[in-house]
Amino acid sequence: MLSKANEGFPFTAILFTPSELWYSLAGHTQNSRSKSCYAEKQGCHYVYRSLFPLLPRTTSSPLRSFIRKTILSDIRTANIRTKNHKLNRAVQTMLFGMVERGMEAEVVGDKGKAKANSGNGHEGEEAMWAIVLTKELWKKGIWNDAKTVSIVALGCQHPVVKVQSASVHFFLGADEDDEDSDDDEDTPDVRSLHHRREINKKTRSGDKKLQKRLNHLKSKQKKKSNLIPTNFPAIQLLNDPQTFAEKLYDILNRYDKRFSLDHKILIMQLLSRVMGSHKLCVLGFYTYIMKYLTYHQLRIPAILVALAQSVHDFTPPDALLPTVTKIAQEFVHPGVGSEVIAAGINAIREICRRQPWAMEEDLLGDLIEYRKSRDKAVTAAARGLLQLFRDVNPGLLKRRERGKEASMGLTKGVKPFGHGKEAAVDIEGLSLLEDHLKQLRTEEGIEDGVFDEDDEGAWEGWDVNSDSDESSDGWIEVESDGDNLVVSDSEDEDGSKKRKGKQNETEGDVDVKMGEEKESTEDATTRISTLATTKILTPADFAMLNDLRLKAVTEAVEKGGGSATKRKLATLEANRKILAQHGTEETFISENDILGPKKKAKADYAERIASIEKGREGREKFGSLKGKKNKATPSSSTNKEKTRNKPIMMIIASGAVRGKKKASLRQKQRKLRAHIDKSKKSHH
């Protein structure tokens, strides 16, 4: 049964596909692929404009999967060697049109009756397939440009809720995290496989099975490492992020009663990440979110995370101050539990970390007093807030709470946060990298000052945007007609210092020796390096720089560094862990950062019974067979064995030992005499 032809499509949309027509369509597609029909403009237009309408309209599951695999494999094949921009633009235009066709419909929502009736229209199905195909092409690394992100960004404003949800999940990265976690759960541990092999019986078939599983794990890890990484996160490639954020807030505010809480939290999280990444100001969002800031609100940790992520250093403190006050009033008071207080203080700390001026002096003093609490989570949260303001704005703290370093900084005239920061003159720890490279060149016999700028190995595995078409033809040589112009660089200055040192050597050798000793004891971390002006630093250099900084701080801690050095070491280790997991240091906070450290909850009756039943698996119903199985004649353990295995505290409290302690002198004499008589009889 064929429907009426859609406008703009050369093929009719198939509603019910018989098996014969399915096989003929498959054969036609295979023949067109073998003739390189996709490489031509007319062929691409003909086949793709025929295949895309079939996805949302056909009821045949094999046909849908076939069309989906065909589209993905053909686009991937066309972009293997180089990017096929003509084909990509044509397909992206079709997908954009599929999403755009249903934008004029009314927003139904996913609450109540609307939840059962949502997603029945063809427009929603068509847009959903467009989003699914775009997400798969992005995930496989075939498309990673701004136009791909624009298709999914348009899906975030679609009136169908399931299209909105799929598009928002793309930006949040929740689908990829779930798939990775599922793969990790299914993948066995290599150490457990080897341990199981050592315990079980040694056979050749067991060795082959173990080697087969190890090879499978190795190939799986290799495939995972060979995934093409994107140059930028999808949020960074948004076109006009301010307008996108305002539209998201408009959807959230206008259709607040039509959406469920879970869907609203998804939009909140995306809006907050866009605001935090691009440093945008959507001030109505802070007014909107205040009605959810109560401790009994469902999924309140996710709402607090969204609030904290939306704050940045350009957010007006006046807009944040009512929000911080509301959190303190609802979460931090004696009438709630310790977990609620810890979550409230942690949320305020994360907000003030991004905007320290969103705090009043009296409120800060009250929050810091919770560091004397008996609960560990509350104490850690209050101490974290205190340490934050010691670093960024110690002026809001009382004098006895500032600490030694913050008080010394205020006396030296150190300005608080937001008041005229000094310009950066060097990369922190770059002198460590300079010394390390100098040592490597000395070992290899390379002269100082010679750098290999075309080192391809240092850029291997990193995304580099190189412009190969650029040339030096645009440079024009200009003769200098001013003799008074003096240009000095680090090499000339070093040479002048050396000449000056040679002149002073004849006058006094003592000064030169003192200068050499001073240079030898100079701290490498405080010296200003000129390496960045003489060498292009590669990503491998920055990775080595992080390792050298971590090593230097670790040595400082081992030599007896103060609390500031230990905090710096903890920060560097945390950044290194985040960098290894996510590939970038600019990560968003999670619900664990808001909840803080949690005590292990006491198991209830059902959990205890389940644990007992789990421990009984694999053994007899009553007693242990340990003593009976390990003997030639099965029997229980003897009293002597039981006495030997008794705990020392039970032996000390036994009647025999206590009787020895309470024995009288006469009893001890009779025991000793009996022992002597027995020993004499044993010799004869």
What does this structure look like?
This protein is mostly helical. The chain contains 34 helices and no strands. Helix 1 runs parallel beside helix 4 and helix 7 runs parallel beside helix 9 (161-172). The longest helix is centred in the first third of the chain and has 22 residues, at 204-225. The relative contact order is 0.04. Mean pLDDT is 76; it is low at 1-17, 35-43, 177-182, 227-231, 463-476, 478-508 and 510-522. Keywords: Nucleus, Protein transport, Ribosome biogenesis, Transport. This is Protein SDA1. Belongs to the SDA1 family.
Give the gist of this structure.
Helix content is 61%, strand content 0%. The protein is mostly helical and 684 residues long.
Please specify the SSE layout and strand pairing.
Blueprint: H1 19-34, H2 41-51, H3 54-57, H4 61-78, H5 85-100, H6 113-117, H7 122-139, H8 146-155, H9 161-172, H10 174-186, H11 190-199, H12 204-225, H13 241-254, H14 261-278, H15 284-289, H16 300-309, H17 317-331, H18 338-354, H19 361-368, H20 376-392, H21 404-411, H22 430-444, H23 490-507, H24 509-520, H25 531-534, H26 539-558, H27 563-582, H28 591-595, H29 605-615, H30 626-629, H31 639-644, H32 648-652, H33 655-662, H34 665-683
Helix pairs in contact: 1-4, 2-5, 5-7, 5-8, 7-8, 7-9, 8-9, 9-14, 11-12, 13-14, 14-16, 16-18, 17-18, 18-20, 26-27
